[in-house]
Structures are given as structure tokens and as C-alpha cells.
Amino acid sequence: MFNRRSFVSLSSALAAGLSMVAGASKASAKTAKSLMDIEPRGTVGRLERFPLLDLESKQDFMAGITSFANNELAIAARDRGLDLLKANGLDPTKELPIETSKKLFGGDQIVGLRDRVWYSAHNYEHDILDAYFHENADRYLAELEASDKAGPGKLELNPSIHIPDYTKHEIHQQPGGYVGNPFAGHIYHYATNMFYRGTNDQDQRHIGYAAGCPLPKDGAVRRILDLGTGIGQLAVTMKERFPNAEVHGIDIAAPMLRYAHMRASELGVDVNFSQRLAEDTQYPSNHFDIVISYIMFHEVTAEASRQIIAEAHRILRPGGVFYPMDFNQAAPPSALRQFAQWKDHHWNNERWRLEYASVDFKTEMRNVGFTVTDQSDERSTFGKMTGVKSA
Amino acid sequence: MPDVKSQKPTHTVDFIPSTTRNAVFLGNPVLDGMMHAILALGAEMWADKRRLKIIESLLSAKRDVTFETIEAYVPTPEQEKAWTAERDQMIKTTFGSLVITSEKSATAAK
Q1: A271 bridge partner residues
Q2: Does A2 score more than 60 pLDDT?
Q3: A11, B46: Cβ pair inside 8 Å?
Q4: Which of B54, B69, B87 shows the shortest C-beta gap to A60?
Q5: The complex's ipTM?
């Protein structure tokens, strides 16, 4: 019969051994485990392994399929798209009316095959995770409940907060979205790990983003805020970079925050998470030294983006730094890239992706008083823009 | 999304369901459905292959082979590398025929 206690102790011993070999982070060394902690297969470094081998293996297969879609199939689709543009006498370096793009590329099977494979892998991953956590809802909700009051950081939920409709969509087809699924954080974490294909299992990307965050000119960093923190990976890695600073992460989605808080607690990292709106944070003016965000802006409306930029300016102290990371706006115009953005918006249900593309962040940031530096490289996925509030 | 089978607080609110989940990319929903099914079967097969590899690893090391030891097994970095290479080769072999160029497509149309 399945003996969970011996299984857990065996897997923990294995994971501990591996962590020593891999050089586990300082944070994981001071892990404060909750009594309710569910880790049936232990952890590898900072990553709680999938609760079932089958789930892990299926994700592994879909990660391979995603690579195949993003490489071989994407090259074939791109070449086909260029052929179609050429055959119709159209310039690939110019954007097209979207109806023309849909007519030209939308019905083509070579272009469509890449999308079919990519979306199937993506949706399959969401579905198996959603099914697993819902089948075990009582256990995982008990784990979250026990963690809600754990330390070292605090979790502040606000059941009476107004949740705007724009945040209620099933963004990137995630079942229930961020606000409607109690396991939104669990699903987001494992599904994005597949998206990153092994390059973020140990938060490596977020460690890099935190390391790249510019400092205020006077070097003083006492308070940091991560907007749209999601599962808190950037907030945690910022705390690890600035151990003496008070770090806060806010999000409108309670399920995401509960997971973020549980994970930070398990890693022993002192971050305070609270349920607030980025466009109306309720923090005092001139309060933070750094305000950051990672891939939040493309998931909010253009109107909210403008409000958030103004709010970031208000809550930063003079000389404070605003560092929003999101999809690169510096990329040159391209008919195929424009169609890819539309597909992401439409088929991947990234509802605000096109509105994001319509906002000129540099101008908006300057309009509220930031001095803006843009080091975005047109070839990279993410832009690198920094705003400094006048001293 | 399934119903939550628990009385514990979920801290959720009503969400706005996506209306574009069932996309048709291949011009025919049957074709799209079949492609999805083939991928799902691939995942099932790879899950079995990986489980077999773990059982073989445990047997080679003369360790107990139980549900617990199989589930808890952590592949070595060398195994991870080799298994990933095998997975990618399997994908290339089984799905490689789907890499269709305009030229191939034009030939097929004749």
C-alpha cells in the first residue's frame, strides 16, 4: 500500500542530496516548511516537483513539442508566410490591415499547423494541471489555508476590493483566469515553466531580471514594489538581491497571491503580498525607491496602463526608479509579426495584447514626469525601459 | 474548468470564459481535433517510456522497484540530457513529416 510518509521522507532525502550537489540557494537552505506542505515528490532546488511522475513526463513531452513548434514548424510557417506575401506583391516589412492578414495567412495549413501544434501543447498542459489540482482540491486548498498565515512575510487579502472586468478574462487560455480558479498560481507556475522550457525552473530568469534592475542614483533602496506580482517570482528575487529592503508584491488575483505567499514562505523569503490594484495601490506618495513589473502591462487595458504609469510615478520617491519589463516595443514593423500579435490576442485570449502594442510607453512615462532611458534591443523579446522620477 | 469539490474558501470571483478556445487552424475542426489527439497520445506514450526508463535505472542499480521509488526517482544530469535528446529525436521522427514547405505543398497539389 502507498505509504506517503516514507515516500515523502525518501523523496526529501533524494531532493536534499541533489540540492547539495546543485548548490541550493541560500533561500532554500532556510526553508520554513509548513506542516501542511504537500510535496509528494520533493523538490529540486527551488522547484517543487510535479506531484505525479506522469504529469511531469507529459509536460516534458509537450515542452519538446513546443520547441518543435517554435523551431522547425515556425520556420516553415514563416517561409510560407513570406511566399504568400511575395505571391501577392506585398512588402513583408510593412504592416497590413488585419482583415488582409487573416485572409492571406489565416486559412493556410502550413501557417496553421505551427499554431495548431503550439496551442494544443499549451492547452493540454493547462488541462492536465487543472484536472489534477481540482481532483485534489481539498488537500491543496488546505495547504494554501495553512500557509496564508505563515511567515516570514505577510499575506493581505481584501475580499471587498473591486475587481475590474478587464482582469477577469481567461488570459492566455488559462482555465478560470487569474481570479476565477483557486489553483491559478499552481497552474501558472508549472505552465510557464513549460513555456520557459527549463530556463526558469530555479527562477533563473527572474534572478537575472532582478540583477538587471537599475538603482536610484543615490543607491538607497529601502522599499520596493512589484506590480502585478502574480506568483511573486520577481518580488522574491528582488528581496534576495536587496535583503535589507522591505519588498511588497501586489496583484488583483487572490489565488495568485496565495500561491506567491506560500512559495515565498517555503523559500524563507520575507516578502509582503497584498491584494491591490496597480492603478490604485493605496500606498502613500513618494513611498518606494523602486517600482518594478514583469509582463504585466500586456495583460491590462491601454487606459489602465496609463493610470498605472501615473500611479508608479506618484508612489515613487524623488530619484526613485520605475522598471517595467514587457514585450519589446522596439521591434521593426513586420506583416508576420503583426499577425502573430493578433493571433496571440485572439486565439491565445491575450485580450489586451493589441492595446498594449498601441501604447507608446516612452511618451506616456515622459508625460507623467519620468526621465526615460530605453535600452531595448529590437532583437530581444523583452524591452528594457527605465523611468526615473525627478529629484 | 471543473467544479471545486471542497468546502474550503477559494478566494475566487466569477471569471469571463474564453470564446476562442476551440480554434480551427487547419481549415476543418476534425483535422484540428485529430492533430490534438495525436499530440495527446504522444504525451501518453512518452510518459510510459519515461516510467520504463526509471524502472530500468532502478533495476540496474539493484534498488527496490515500487510505486514510491519510481515516483521519487530523480534522474541524474546525464540521464536528463540523454532522455531529452531521445525525446527530441522521437518528436523529429514521428512529427517531422509535418514540416511542410511551400515547395512540398505545391508538389502535392499537382
Answers
A1: A247
A2: no
A3: no
A4: B87
A5: 0.94
The 10s digit of each residue's pLDDT in A11-60 is 343 333 333 333 333 333 334 445 567 788 999 999 999 999 999 999 99
Give the pLDDT band of residue B108 (cuts 50, 70, 90): low
| Alpha-carbon distance B74 to nearest alpha carbon in chain A (angstroms) | 7
B13 contacts A163? CB cut-off 8 A: yes
CA distance A175 to A187: 9
Q: What is the pLDDT of residue B76?
A: 96
Q: What is the pLDDT of residue A377?
A: 79
Residue matched to cell numbers 487569474: A178
Evaluate whether A374 touches A364 at the Cβ level (below 8 Å).
Answer: no
Give the lowest-confidence range in A22-36, A115-129, A229-243, A275-289. A22-36
DSSP string, B16-57: B--S-SS---SSSHHHHHHHHHHHHHHHHHHHHHHHHHHHHH
According to the model, what pLDDT value does residue A202 have?
96
CA distance A68 to B95: 9
A134:B8 CB<8 A: no
Torsion of CA A62, A63, A67, A69, to 10 degrees: 30
Note whether A72 contacts B96, CB cutoff 8 Å: yes
Contacts of A3 in chain B (CB under 8 A): 68
Integer Cα distance of A289 and A202 in angstroms: 27
B87/A347 Cβ within 8 A: no
Interface of B with A in 4-63 (CB under 8 A): 4-6, 8-18, 20-21, 23, 25-27, 32, 35-36, 39-40, 42-44, 46-47, 50-51, 54
